[in-house]
Batch of 4 targets.
Target 1
Amino acid sequence: MLFRSVTRLLDEVAQLGATFAIDSGRLRISTPKGTLTTDLQRRVVESKDEIMRRLQEVSSAVPAPSSARLDPDPQGDSLPFPLSDLQLGFYIANDSYMEFHVRPHCYFEFDVVDLDPIAYEAAWNKAVRRHRRELCTVTKDVELKLITGDIELRCQLYDLRSLKSEEVAARLLSVRDEMKRQELPVESWPWLDLRISLWNEDGRKMARVHYNHNNFFVDGLGTMQFLHEIDEYYSNPDLSYPPLTLSYRDAVLGLNRVAESELGEAAYSYWISRLPGLPPPPNLPQRLGLNRRCRSLLERREGGLEKPLWDSFKARAAALGITPSNAMIAAYAYVIATWSNSDHFILSQMATRRFAHLHPDLPRMLGNFVSLYPLEVKLNPTAPLAENAKNIQAQVIRDMEHLQVGGMRVLQELNRLKGSFGTAPSPFVVGSGLSIKNYKKSAFTLLETSQTVLDYQFFEPQDGSCLYVWDLLESFFCDGVVPAMWYAFERLLRVLASDHNAWQQTDFDLVNGRDLTARQERNRTAGPVPTSGLHESLSAQAASRSSDAVLISAEGHLSYGVLDAESDALAAELRIRGVKKGDLVPIVMDRDHEVMVAALAILKSGAAYVPIDPGLPRERFALLLDGVGSRVV
């Protein structure tokens, strides 16, 4: 039990960006300010001896006592290997049949004064060479293979120094428009796009680095570490980081062995046992009738807390035993709950599987080690925010103890149970980037990722502030919803940062007065309650307009008279088969005029109808049919 508990502790602390070291026989821990709670400090102290023992094992190159350890295998560099967990999800989702499909990438712009393009390109290539055994492409058999041959990057240069400011602005915007939604290759190298624009502005030599990053191959932590390494090489060309011994192939195969181990099987059982009881994702007000099987076009909203406010927010959370990440998730959950009118829903939580205890290279290398897992949020409306945040934190900790199996398997099973093929089981994503030590804030960013309606992430840039972003399909939401949610979220964060009493509140009046008045007006629906059923007015309509069309479809049109007659005949047949008042009768058919006939016939027989999608997975279909308990379908 000690081995497992310390393993979980090390992984949890690694998620916060902390590192351990032994100095003069004493254990020292380095962690971002405000992330180490009192509870984590206690657990570290209690496990000090075991942590020190493991550090000494690593430094002495003693193999860890696990059959799933990650060992370098340079002899296997030429062999193909499977896609990582999220890479598989990305590959499947990039299909026109899938909801919100796109090949994932992120376009950045960084503005720099007095940039030397030749030296900057050299810094990139130095970093690329260090990470050579982490670079791969997708084969025609949908496997990965490490890149061989030339990997040198050539940076495209735009010299705008002779142009007027208006022309410069237009050219810079033109490059942005060309690159920001550019889907990158996965079958060939280079699978990224690096360009530089040069211009003069107010006597300064300006440069803009246009970088389109391929999220298929490198996750957020790896990206920021890579960009920081490049900047370090540029500033100090003689700098050399120690070589990495693991290849990406070694890492992927090692994590697959973890998933197949006893701990992996236990983790899978944990997730599978929880799936049937999970609620659906939040039902935020979205426009009706939009095609969800479309090419995703996310738009970005970003905001932030200045360093003093962010420090105050972290301090108030830490005083209550809440990590900054879980406090940020809790504030977001309150906004989502308000606009979805539900206190119980799931989000897709991003988690990294860079298990430092398996090999010290894992947290430092390129590659996609992120997985998505369903995070259950269950807010108690009568409890203060601090208590609900602690409950979210407890659920996050339980989930983080079961990352040995990739989230793709979990979400596939969730979709099988509760969704249908091609749909996004949980298109609301949340991810903490607070463990990224050297987050580099860009002048402009546009993220494109698949099967996502709203992607919420937050980071701590190098100036010590907090940056939070929503990447979302804003056009899918009803008018005014996103601006109102965004305003409420920003206001709530600032209240929590500035007032310690706010953490004990149960209600925050997140909906502004104008929206609340409009909502109350729409809900004033009091009036006489009709005593007749849906089907009872059909006979009157059939008598007065028998030949008029009640339904027009690809199969033709259906008149009131025919609908009334056909539903009467079917209702009589149902009564003969024993259907009576109060019974439930399933309707299992594709949408067309027969569905309307069947529904009205069931109502005329005194029963209630239960529509069931015939395209559901077999197990889900059988479960629903069994729940209805009808002898007639």
Target 2
Amino acid sequence: MRKLLTMLLTFLAVSAFADLGEVSVITVKTDGSKIQRRCKLVPQGDGAFRFAIPARELTADIKDIEILGDFAKAKKGESGYFVIPPNSIGSFTQETGTVAERNMALPVFGMKTPRGSFVAIVKGLRFEFSTVAAASGGNYVLYPRFHIGEMGGVFYEDLVVDFYELKAPDDGYPAMARLYRKYQLDRGEVVPLRERVKDRPALKYSAESIFVRFSQGSKRRDLSHWLQTDENLPTFDVYLTSDKFMEKMRKIHEIGMRNVEVCFVAWNIEGFEGRLPDLFPPDPRFGGEAKMKEAIAFGKQLGFQMTNHVCNMIFNRRAERFSEDAVAKRADGTLLPYSIKAIPCGQAFVPCMKVVAEKYTDEDYEGMKALGFEKGLQHLDVTSAVLPHACFDPRHPCTRKQTAEYENAIGLKCREYFGGFSSEAGVHHVPKTLDFAMYTTTFFHRKVMWKKWRIKPNFMLDNRTIPFWQIVYHGIILSNPDWDTIDLDCDLKDESDPALRTADTPDFNLWRRLQLWEFGGRPVFYWNQANNLAEVKKIYDRYQKVSRLQYEFMDDHREISKGVFLTKYSDGSIIITNYTKKPFEYCGAVVPAEDFALIEPSNAVSASVCRQKKIDKAHRRATLFFK
């Protein structure tokens, strides 16, 4: 009986992916017509099955190209899920619905069903697609949609997607993420953190320190004066003078925090996003240049690593260095506007990054060095939070791919001038130069802001996230997991949609606090005043005990009991995160209620053996049942 069952399961596993050999390709034309055809996938030496369209076959009358495989389908009620980066997961629970992600943090997507599991890597036109998960009548499909019509007729490379089958039992989202990590490492796109810190002291300091950001001041966001002039400038609020900045650093040092990277935010003329690309002089309302230099020197004297925040992505007309020539152009020749209107400087435009790299960056960085910034991860706002944009200005044209190359060139300049490069999020065009992502997703923020933004939850996605981005890049790029795992010294009001709350949903602020440790994050604090330093010190002390894990790959993550999660690292260390209200015992280690615990490698080995014994025992029971 058991032999017959094994043969049946083997047959099902083989037949489930027999159709991995071909896909349906739907070409949507600009006139609305559609052409559908079946295409064979081509086996590759690394085990992938490849779909490709040569660049010469892409034409201006194509709007979108969608690639659908029968292996990427599921039914409502089936076990399994789909994965969309950075950290979204969706179970098969809906009758109808759609989720489409354009700002792909990684060029990867995957699905696990009872019939098999796969992960796809987009290797050509990786900045030109969305991942779509759609359900209709309880039937799910996951596929990429390439936006050929947005390329302005510049088809700069072949469209390439490689599909990889994953074999059970190692066929879940950790395996999907590890496969992409291996791809990145094998082709030399990224280098492990352990290797990179050997000759980069600023990066080593960052890995072992918390990140503290002080914002000095800003104009108020005033849409009634979107086009700002010297006569209608909004009210300016000073949050922190340089003298007060020094007092805050003194207090941080006095309570025993030594490994702290301190970042000046909004120090530039007119404060946060005030009159970019102008930076200098430092705004006199904070104390001016001399006081800022004094504060930087004082921070160094305390042993802190001093850095600052700037933004390359905003050009405002009031700036002395503004030039329409430097602004990126859309395909119709118009200036590319900045996507957010409600910023302190009012109307703004996005520059061409070729121009920024060649004409602005060195001047800015020389000025920063003159202030005293010499060693630290230079923080560039927005850069890694959005996909690279195209520029169609004939004087400095750039495809998205070329823009990514210029943004990496700027990242290298950060390394040359200051020792490293940090940015806002983890979008995949700068991994080879990025050292730290301030957050990788905004899951919690979307939950609490749904009323203000008038965005209802998309039930195609589960009410949780997974550390998919972290399994790819932990041990390579430092990160903090979520926008709202910043400032864990204070609580947020839970305004999430009641429909998302169930008896199993963790307390909102507990969830925020524990996810930092579950996802292997680096603590970040972003303040105007910093009034809760006692709580910060507790987080600092805990981080000092686990910071060595920043040098390890994250290899596994799973729920081992209801509300209890295991995160495993490449050195064998294990973090157990317990969201429940009762202590949890993991092979002799007791994890307190609503807390986490680190199991060191020596103990993790015995814990692994202990857990294997439990698995073997359960397997024996199952074997007896089938007899």
Target 3
Amino acid sequence: MRLISTLFLCCTAHSLIAQQFDTTVYNNELSVYVTNSSLENLDFTYYLEDTSLDNAHKIHPFRHSSSAWLDQGLIMSPAMALDLDLPNTGIFTQAPQTFSHGLLKSEDIKYYKSGASRTNLKYSQGASDLLYIQTQHSQNIFDRWTAGVNYHRIKTQNQFYDNLPGFNEERMTNVFGFQFFSHYVTLNKNYEVLADYAWNKSTVQETYGITDVDFFDTLSGRQKQYASSAFLPDAENLMSNRTVRVLQLFRPGERKIRVNDTTQIIDTTYGQIKEQWFNEATFRTQANRFIDNAYNENIYPIRYVSATTHDSIFERTFANRFGRIGEISSRLRYKAQLITEWVHLNQLNAHQGNYTNVQLAGNLRRDMLLRGKMILNAEWAVIGYYQGDWNFEGKFIHVVNRDSSALLEASYKSIRHRPDYNMQFFGSNYYYWNRAMDKTNIQQAKTTLRFPRQKTGLELIYRNITGYAYLGVDGLPIQSSNNISYYAVRMKSEVDLGSVFHSSIDLRLQNSNADELRIPDMTAKVSLYLEGHLFKKNMRAQFGVDGYYFSRFKGYQYDPSSRMFKLSNSTTGGYPLIDVFLNMHVQTMKLFVVVEQATQGLFEEDWYTLPGYPMVGTAVRFGAEWRLFN
């Protein structure tokens, strides 16, 4: 920890000393970047960094990515999006990753073009002793070699429970993340390597909610502080994840540029690169540990091991992807890869598993003559835990008008997927199961109509699901025998009224014909704000409100022992969640003040994000983000 703090201070001091020029206007060369995915897929376009004020005040990951979610009411607590994502069929999955939204990940790294050093500092603090610190620093080490570090720290304190050890100093969520990354490319671009190491650690004080909801609802304002008891007064979940990843890109051959009739020079650009080999090696270790030092038999009536629970799951995975991407013709592109995984799993006093997973994957993309594209994706698991699984997708994209003002996309996807490991095998002090499950089969048809100029889109989704796996009210796994149908209509739109008033909406209407697949009938995310210049155009400001809503439904409860969401007989939702924000931008600094949960207490009941877990009351939070360049 002391090393991380020293590194943070050094990066800050280096950037403060080095900032020699006026940065009222961003220099594009300092603000363009590439990613792991773009380089692997022969996309050598430099993306321009988003320096707008949009979302500057948002800390919670789901406030960025989702219109509706369930969590324990605190940032970085275990969470579940209500968008009903399809299963990830590319990698081994131990269980639904309820902690994953707080991880620093390889796919999020930005490799900036400029050789100048750059640092991005973000700090936020507010009610409930919320503390958020993030720093990102990268710089050129030698010619064509760039390295950097990312660091974040997020914590929140106890506000409601009076029976926790050191209750008024108890940290409810405590997240730490450190990431080192490096990028090197040869002069002729024949070889390129991107590597990163990440260490993520998350600790959550588990309570299973407040014991007396009816009494809690009679209180208001500050009366709620330390006025309730937790079902689990001394329990916590720990997740630790370490990942090392190396992506290598090989482009054999000699590429030259003709200067004149007699002279050619080596091409040092990406312009002529049409194909490449790639290899990605990843080593990951992950540990999940649940500790309960104060047993509550009303929550967990069965005990298998001891009076004190130390339930742990350890995973070690080495994965390797090897493949080639290129062109068959000017209109036809391909990507083929072989994916292998070696997985070792160990659950304390329970199951151990060793799996060698081999998967073949391919992609074809054809540009059509009539302003369209056809894309085919295929994945097939040859051996291992997922043997016999597949993921096939066909997609057609048509440009309706010659000026690209309307795009029509139609796709069909077929997935055959074995349920996650912990849905079939799990052992702890409170649960034990060993159940063979059939494959889950998903058929999806989706049609999307987008109007890029109007920033508007309409999406229609239909899914047919058989063999759906879930946890029942008792926390035990069940595989549905029903043929489940899911329908959804989604509309996204951004409307600008003049140059000052702006709005955006993300609305989803959805329905399921089965009780085991529980979803709210409607979810919505709305943003309304004014934006303009102040103080003789020396400051750009944004003032507005964000609204989040999902209709009331009988949903889910989080189970700390299994770290998964199970069905619940209680209902949640039906209340709007409103944030009022003020964002300001001066030179390379953003400042923001936000009043979160501004509508808390205005309804007959408080907002419960999960049964028994009240949302933290109206909270004022402030923060700053500063970009520094050398």
Target 4
Amino acid sequence: MPTHSEDAELLGVASLVVCYGKFVNADKKITNELPNGRTQFAPTVHSHRIIKSLDFREKINLSLEYKKEYRIMADEILENEVAGNFIHDFIKEDIAEGGRFEGKEVHTRFPPEPNGYLHIGHAKAICIDFGTAERFGGKCNLRMDDTNPTKEDVEYVDAIKEDIAWLGFSWGDRFYFASQYFDKMYEFAIELIKKGLAYVCELSPEEMRENRGDLSHPAKSPYRDRPIEESLDLFERMKNGEFPDGKMTLRAKIDLTSGNFNMRDPVLYRINRIKHHRTGDKWCIYPMYDFAHPIEDALEGITHSLCSLEFEDHRPLYDWVINNISVPAKPRQIEFARLGINNTVMSKRKLRKLVEENYVNGWDDPRMPTLCGLRRRGYTPASIRNFCERIGVAKATSTVEYSFLEHCLREDLNETAQRTMAVLRPVKLIITNYPEDKTETFEVENNPNRPEDGTRTVTFSRELFIEQDDFMEEPVKGYFRMFPGNEVRLKTTYIVKCTGCKKDENGNVIEVYAEYDPETRGGNAPDGRKIKGTIHWVDAKTASTAEVRLYDNLFTVPDPDVGDKNFLDYLNPNSLEILTNCKVEPAMASAEAPKSYQFMRLGYFCVDKDSTPEKPVFNRSVSLKDSFKKK
């Protein structure tokens, strides 16, 4: 039998097990029924760490023999963990005995273009690239693909690094730029020319398109048989700036009859006199991505180059480049389907249009699908990683409901967010039989799911604020909140009975009146009478006034950019509602961004970066109601 300390240590290990985004906290009570009648521990989303130790099962079995439940939990999680996905299957084959990477460390990379902010689609790729390396005990590089000098911006580089670190991934000291390999790329291009595998072509882009051919006719280039020495001379002169932009290109000499048009002598270099953000004016020729990408991977010792599905047809060219130049490694490219998600757009061009034409308030507008926008909205790293794990990795393109992303956030914040009371559309409630000079205090739990988070003190007095829709002078059927003659429970405090209201000259209710039952302190009736309605409130004496921003979908249709649609025609005019007279507990005035809270009965909200103690500002992250339908 293990000692108490050993047992506690191993339970701590078990509590950090994660499989496909379902986190298991092993020190909680057993609550979930399994189909075979057994039970397992309730899933939570606290843990961010993955247990990858090969002897984990053995440790659990040896040290917790008397705790069968823990062994069952470990077995089931490890069985699912082993299942993996098709990328993991390929990698297992590659690193197994006799595989192409036998004995090598799994090495991946994430290579974004620094020409925009990362969005939720990139998060999937980040989780695949970094997560795959983590799973196999390997490493993942972060590389900026800055081969195109017309689009790069240092602002984007910094934002990309911030987003990846926020998600909880680390590239260590392995941060690179494609541009740092420009000299080597030029050398490899010369190597191809000398081997008779590349030539300088003088066809203009229009002429190249005209001579591309079709499935029945080969492509053409009158320069394909240009002598090697002549191509070497022209290529050097291209580099030296002797020709205008677009005058010449360097093309690979592969197969003009190929059914894969990417192999019909693709362009490797083009002339482009644009100042590069890192290399300045050193270069006036720049490599194409299909040439640069495999070279970068090979020079960094990448074993598995994980790409989105649109690069599947480019894989033969990737392999051709690797196999025909003197690089130190031969990576394997594997493709997976991109993330498709409804109710938004993820084209960088379209997102840039939204920002630059002021349809939204910047890249971090909480309505945007960018990671900085989601972060400002209140999304957590755990919720996004959980989402990416649970949608899985596939070869077929599919679309995920945006509501499932919200579902993952709701799951996380339900466990972690502190509760507080806030009134968004306030009306004053006056308890007429409560002493005017009296104030009481009550202890309210911060999070019922985390007793260790303790309690907070709230004040209660004669005048309170409640939600306008928590009072109805003439109630509809099934309405159990406040109306004349009805009793409701004020959260944690007393049962009160509504006695009437006061209206202004326009018929709007400006005050609600009630009487409290002093014998019901804590909210329970000594005589056992049932109270169907419980509402939240804020003490008018101590409440702080806050601004609350209510965000909704940016578009009115699930697929705003499908087919011939102009996505701007489907912008939702009600995607943002700003409330400026909300009442919150006084401690909320000093809350700091980006902390999240559950506004009781209303939803999950986070502190916005615009918030100050004098003017607190909160963003609605997600409502309490879960619109995602569990299958």
